[in-house]
Write a structure and sequence with these properties.
Blueprint (H helix, E strand, L loop, with lengths): L2 H29 L1 H18 L3 H9 L4 H27 L2 H24 L18 H26 L5 H29 L5 H51 L12 H6 L5 H19 L7 H10 L5 H21 L18 H9 L21
Helix pairs in contact: 1-2, 1-8, 2-4, 2-8, 4-5, 4-6, 5-6, 6-7, 7-8, 8-10, 8-13, 11-12, 12-13
């Protein structure tokens, strides 16, 4: 595969990904002021990157749009994108005078580019390529490159350090991905400026790859909240799936702790949940722990040690051994409760005082106990003497 073919493929992938990200995030991003600026910035950058693709340029030329017009539009929208980056950063400081300065600079830069293009200064020759500049004026290109370098440099300087200080995970990844994309943009515009004065046709495809990968990072920064939300959903789903057998058995024995009866199967609980996976996981954790506390009234003093010895004979060690012992003792208490045994003074099980989610999941991993079913309680438990 040649560098040009690679650039074309990466470019198409970048453009498609950017537009998908924009459409996917449009509804929620435009409603939230703290995300609206990022969405508009990526939107402007997406249009500029789209107009940079050779196939798009060729299609527009076939439709009667001149290459000069496409190039000028791309450059103007690119400068607008750089200005929006600066506004996005300045907005976080809430400094009104800085905002007015950026807006004035942006209007001046756009007006200068239009004026220079109309003057048609041709003191140097533009590279003969569909992606070449709208004009080869040195002043024109200095304005264009400085605008981009200023916006991208500010993004790197501000976004990355701020991502190290915030605790918002969505914001952390959005800022870091945006900053990494800005680093690639800095490399691109530095290389493009070099290409203007030292034309090198072999360099252009690689610059196209860089700006296209930059677009992928922009799309990723926009999709970061979606990705983290999906990750949280998958974590909740895994918790629901792993905890369900233990939760179901315990709430059947202690039904008063459950807000609703368990569904018939674990698969049904996952595919047709009564609430979101996150809420279902939260419910199962709380109800499992509440049932566990209730069942401690049915735990015999020697139950944990007996289950521990039985599990150790299977070769278990460490946390797995402790979880198996807890599962065995809890299973005996559950059977005692279901058999009608009378409760006694609670016999706390070791390691479950704080109701750690990790502890409950470890017990669920050993439920029912791999040491085999323990015998049912022979009769009512006698109240322990104080």
């Amino acid at each position: 595969m040649t560098a040009t073919e690679l650039a074309n493929q990466v470019g198409v992938c970048s453009v498609v990904t950017l537009w998908i990200a924009l459409v996917w995030r449009a509804g929620s991003a435009l409603r939230l002021p703290n995300q609206r600026g990022l969405w508009l910035t990526v939107f402007a950058a997406t249009i500029a990157i789209t107009l940079f693709q050779p196939k798009v340029v060729a299609w527009l030329a076939h439709a009667g749009v001149g290459t000069q017009t496409v190039s000028l539009s791309r450059n103007l929208i690119g400068v607008l994108s750089a200005g929006l980056v600066l506004l996005f950063i300045v907005d976080s400081t809430r400094a009104r005078h800085q905002r007015l300065t950026v807006i004035a600079g942006l209007v001046t830069a756009l007006g200068s580019l239009l004026a220079l293009n109309l003057l048609g200064d041709a003191r140097t020759t533009a590279p003969a390529a569909p992606q070449g500049p709208a004009t080869a004026s040195s002043v024109y290109w200095l304005i264009l490159v400085v605008a981009h370098l200023a916006g991208d440099a500010a993004a790197v300087v501000v976004c990355w350090p701020y991502s190290l200080r915030t605790a918002d995970r969505d914001l952390v990844w959005s800022l870091r991905l945006f900053a990494m994309g800005s680093v690639l943009a800095l490399v691109f515009w530095t290389g493009y400026l070099y290409h203007l004065y030292v034309p090198d046709q072999d360099l252009m495809p690689w610059l196209s790859v860089i700006i296209s990968v930059h677009g992928l990072f922009r799309a990723a920064s926009l999709l970061a909240p979606t990705a983290t939300a999906l990750a949280r959903s998958m974590t909740a789903l895994r918790t629901v799936w792993r905890l369900w057998p233990l939760w179901r058995d315990l709430v059947v024995a202690v039904p008063q702790v459950a807000l609703a009866d368990p569904q018939r199967t674990r698969l049904q609980a996952v595919l047709r949940p009564r609430s979101s996976w996150a809420l279902q996981a939260h419910r199962q954790i709380i109800e499992t722990y509440d049932a566990l506390l209730e069942l401690q009234q049915y735990v015999r003093p020697e139950a944990y040690d007996t289950a521990h010895r039985q599990a150790s004979r299977t070769g278990m060690r460490g946390d797995r051994l402790a979880a198996a012992a807890l599962a065995g003792a809890l299973g005996e208490a559950r059977r005692a409760k279901l058999s009608g045994a009378e409760p006694s003074d609670p016999c706390p099980l070791p390691g479950v005082e704080r109701g750690s989610q990790a502890t409950l999941l470890a017990i669920a991993g050993m439920w029912p106990s791999p040491t085999g079913p323990l015998p049912a309680a022979p009769g009512p438990l006698r109240p322990r003497r104080p």
